[in-house]
Amino acid sequence: MEPSAPITQDVMTFPRKETPSDKINLVGLTRDALRQVLIENGTPEKQAKMRAGQIWQWIYQWGERDFAEMTNLAKGYRAELSEKFEVRVPEVVSKQVSEDGTRKYLVRIDGGHEVEVVYIPEEGRGTLCVSSQVGCTLTCSFCHTGTQKLVRNLTAAEIVGQVMMARDDLDEWPEKGAPKDETRLLSNIVLMGMGEPLYNFENVRDAMKIVMDGEGIALGRRRITLSTSGVVPEIHRTAQEIGCLLAVSFHATTDETRDVLVPINKKWNIEKLLEALREYPKATNSERITFEYVMLKDVNDTDEDAHRLVKLLDGIPAKVNLIPFNEWPGAPYQRSSNNRIRAFATILMQAGYASPIRTPRGEDIMAACGQLKSATERARKSRRQIEAEAGIQAP
Ligand code: SAH
Ligand code: SF4
């Protein structure tokens, strides 16, 4: 018999461009900051607002990177712009495509750091999972990213740049004059990649404002979901200054267990977190808060947990997203059985809560929730260290 070829992932690696540049990147600037930087670099103040608006549209509506192509600007002005400025997004280092169509990109940002971005296609829509930090300062014991020390916060340019990069790859910038296509491949954004978005608030906010701007990428605020592990003092600002939907990594129903799984709980416990969520101004029935709950075998998955969760949710417009644990090398936990997850979901549903079980996507390429980590940042802890911190005895 012919030996069959092994099934391998589709990994594409792109040569690295060395682009040390002293030009000012216009990506990631707020409208005001863009206008300001134009003025500082010679655009007459009286024209600056209009020019900023034109350049903004080229960058965010049409995906243009080359000033020479910005044809509604005078030729001389275009040349001046390209001398001083650039339109730069993170560089794709590699791209993997899962059997289920999920795409995982490794992108490179200044300083040689790398972060992962995941695109998940679905029927009639598609979600981009965006990173907000290189690594994470928090150390949730079930999360792969948590084993990587924080290297730095991403800039607003690097956050909105992930969205622009994905639109490039999906070839989804509109064509001039073509009828508007309302079914978008990239229709939703979740801030659920690497990092804790509320520990990088300003940059995340500025990036999302750009993504929402009607004269650009124009994704509505309800198409963006920010996931936090529970940075209580920043939750209120999320509603006020970004206005997007909120998801919370809840994962446990007692402080004792949550202290271990989501250690930020030692700072802001379940009671404080729920108090902040009860006051989340955007939380209404149509904009419910998503409670993310990772299903860990024999840790947080009993019927008692489900009943306790129902009690805790009382008074909060909520839905529960049950996430079967995604394993990663050295992980100190196992996924709950399908029967256990279904039994847990049934209790929640009977109490009136929508509780979908999230289908893991892109598992074969380690693109599923909590599996992200830049392979090059090898500040990885040992299995023993992870277990010790999680309070688990090695078998
Ligand atoms: N730092 C933010 C956002 C990133 S994590 C946060 O913690 O909310 C996105 C979601 O994936 C979170 O709910 C996180 O708890 C969950 N997650 C992390 N590791 C996981 C794993 N191994 N399996 C399943 N879900 C995981
Ligand atoms: Fe950081 Fe979120 Fe992972 Fe916790 S779950 S370590 S907050 S990325």
Give a description of the structure:
The protein is an alpha/beta fold. Helix content is 31%, strand content 17%. It contains 11 helices and 14 strands. The chain has helices at 31-40, 45-61, 75-84, 156-170, 201-212, 232-242, 255-261, 270-278, 303-313, 338-350, 383-390, and strands at 10-13, 24-25, 85-86, 91-97, 103-108, 114-122, 125-129, 133-134, 152-153, 188-191, 224-228, 245-249, 289-295, 318-324. α6 (232-242) runs parallel beside α8 (270-278). The structure holds S-adenosyl-L-homocysteine (SAH) and iron/sulfur cluster (SF4).
Largest sheet properties: 10 strands, mixed
Ligand set: S-adenosyl-L-homocysteine, iron/sulfur cluster
Classify the helix fraction into a percent range.
25-40%
Strand order in the sheet with the most strands: 1-4-5-6-7-10-11-12-13-14
Task: List the secondary-structure elements in sequence, H or E.
Answer: EEHHHEEEEEEEHEHEHEHHEHEHH
Report the total helices.
11
- Measured between the Cα atoms of the first and last residue, the distance is 42 Å
Strand content: 15-25%
- Per DSSP E runs of 2 or more residues, the count of β-strands stands at 14
Structure class: alpha/beta
Shape, per Cα inertia axes? elongated
- How many whole angstroms does the radius of gyration measure? 22 Å
Report the average pLDDT across residues. Answer: 89
Which blocks of ≥5 consecutive residues have pLDDT under 50? Answer: 1-9, 375-383
